[in-house]
Write a structure and sequence with these properties.
The protein is mainly α. The chain has 2 domains: about 220 residues, Rossmann fold (3-Layer(aba) Sandwich); about 90 residues, Tyrosyl-Transfer RNA Synthetase, CATH 1.10.240.10. Helix 1 links the parallel strand 1 and strand 2. Bound molecules: tryptophanyl-5'AMP. The site of tryptophanyl-5'AMP (TYM) has 26 residues, from strand 1, helix 1 and helix 7. It is found in: Cytoplasm. It catalyses: tRNA(Trp) + L-tryptophan + ATP = L-tryptophyl-tRNA(Trp) + AMP + diphosphate + H(+). It comes from Kaistia dalseonensis.
Amino acid sequence: QPRVFSGVQPTGNLHLGNYLGAIVNFVALQQSHDCIYCVVDMHAITVWQDPKELSRQIREVTAAFVAAGIDPVKHIVFNQSQVSAHAELAWIFNCVARIGWMNRMTQFKDKAGKDKENASLGLLAYPSLMAADILAYKATHVPVGEDQKQHLELTRDIAQKFNNDYAESIAEHGFGDAFFPLTEPLITGPATRIMSLRDGTKKMSKSDPSDYSRINLTDDAEAIATKIRKAKTDADALPGETDGLKGRPEADNLVGIYAALSGLSKQDVLNQFGGQQFSAFKPALADLAVEKLGPIGAEMRRLMADPGHIDQILANGALRADAIARPILDGVKDVVGFIRRK
Ligand code: TYM
């Protein structure tokens, strides 16, 4: 049975990259799949988080999900720490995965920086918890941006090693020849990697110190327009063909953003704007961004005014998520040979 799972960290500013690379696809998949969308608060604390700010951010990501069009009644929205299966399965996966696999993750290398010895152990084990998020529900499809591809490959490696290491026990317990599915990443659309507005070679990121590098979902119309006006570009006009965007990362990024926000292809956008200067294209892009993001930001602010309601959405989602994960985790424990209360 197909099942979608994905997660977003409640750390810092949700931005256009998170929205176009992930959340838009979360919304679309609701039509065709059963979906579980998780605010991964346990992943967030792999680097230091101020406690009050963390609680606020968990609610803000939840508000963004709902404001963008995720239905928390038909589908499941919750925060990770409320369902203990994530932590329990992550421990088992810590014992399946190899340290070498973790050391090779580019996100770990980026986030740990030079002083690897001083990174939290959780930061190293991060992908193992991510595999647990997905496999606690035996999810088959995971919509993400391009930067999560390596983590999803590791999820498949962990699933496969578990299936191999425990093959005999899996069969003996009546689970056939594979316990976990090999999850498919869904990295689709024209916006799988949105770049910084200040540097077309760096991805747009929550942690970039310059707020001008990204458009936040909570930015008002004026902030959105200013950031697009100030976005770095080259001096040439827009090309007529997508080939002409090669070697022009900033132009390529802005055209990609326009395409993703409008639902057009990049070529369609160039058919419309090819030959024009950025001084003409940028205001059109700003208007489009305000039109698409303005209502989401406004709805987020409305939802954030009632934190009790958001907490209720999360509690309700957590109960339903737990009901799916619990029997799967029981199966894992039986396969591993643990003894559990029956
Ligand atoms: P996170 O919180 O960094 O980002 C959330 C989603 O946004 C995508 N994204 C982008 N897409 C396009 N362009 C960008 N500049 C950009 N920046 C971020 C990310 O690819 C992601 O889809 N490890 C995950 C969270 C996670 C998860 C999971 C995801 C934890 N468990 C299980 C899927 C399944 C992360 O840090 O995403």
